[in-house]
Amino acid sequence: MKLILLGAPGAGKGTQATAMAEKFNLCHISTGALLREEIKAETELGKIAAGLIKEGKLVPNELVVSMMASHFEKVKGVDGFLLDGFPRTVEQAISLDNLLAERGEAVCNVLSIMIPDEMIVERIQGRAAVEGRADDADISIIRQRIATYHSQTEPLIEYYQEKGLYKEVDGTGSIEQVREAIFAIL
Ligand code: AMP
After folding, report:
1. Distances (CA, A) of 33 to 2, 53, 98, 169
2. At what angle do helices 175-185 and 13-24 cross, to 10 degrees?
3. H/E segment holding residue 29
4. What's the rounded Cα separation, in Å, for the pair 72 and 167?
């Protein structure tokens, strides 16, 4: 199983990905979490990512793609993977397709968790206190991330619709309701 979970920041991708990975024995790969590890380890990539994440902007495609390529090599002993936060641009999606094709693999399902922009702001502000992420604590960064999502990530909907892989779930319900909707599709 090669799954992609799409959705705006705060849509609940991380929470749902954890449940999905457990149920279907998948490796949950979150680019945001991997980038935060790079920042913590003060690597070259981490130094570049830190400034961009702080501004609510995307890390350059080639850096994220090569980080993912080396991460795929480490995925073993599972029935597939679940990508959370990647791809975030059409260019990344094309790179992912090429990367998988080299391994004789392909994306099999793309699920998008849909929530309105105002709910995004509420949810992110709510989790800021719990997770302590600096990019969650500032309203102007949240607005920038929403704008980045609409301009750069939303075009992926059409990209995956054309491939017949795309499905949507309503993300406005409780964690359990959204989880059941996702499981029903899968
Ligand atoms: P997330 O934890 O998914 O909300 O990601 C936090 C931040 O990491 C984003 O706002 C981006 O700055 C960066 N990031 C995460 N995934 C990607 C990606 N696929 N491409 C570029 N930047 C990313």
Report:
1. 19, 12, 23, 23
2. 50
3. strand 27-30
4. 24
Q: Is the predicted pLDDT of residue 97 greater than 90, yes or no?
A: yes
DSSP state of 85: S
Q: How many A from CA of 8 to the centre of ligand 1?
A: 11
Q: Best substitution site from 18, 31, 48 to test ligand 1's pocket, by max atoms within 8 Å of Cβ? A: 31
Is pLDDT of 23 > 90? yes
* Mean pLDDT confidence for 144-169: 97
Say how many Å lie between the CA of residue 7 and the centre of ligand 1: 12
3 state SS of 19:
helix
Alpha carbon distance 116, 73 (integer Å): 36
pTM above 0.90, yes or no: yes
| Range in 14-18, 54-58, 126-130 the model is least confident about | 126-130
Q: Measured in angstroms, how far is the CA atom of residue 22 from the centroid of ligand 1?
A: 23
Q: Is the pLDDT of residue 168 over 90?
A: yes
Residue 30 has pLDDT above 90, yes or no: yes
CA–CA gap between residue 115 and residue 171 (Å, rounded): 5
Q: Are residues 171 and 113 in contact, defined by beta-carbon separation less than 8 angstroms?
A: yes
Helix, strand, coil share of the chain (percent; to 5): 60, 15, 25
**Cβ(112)–Cβ(169) under 8 Å?**
yes
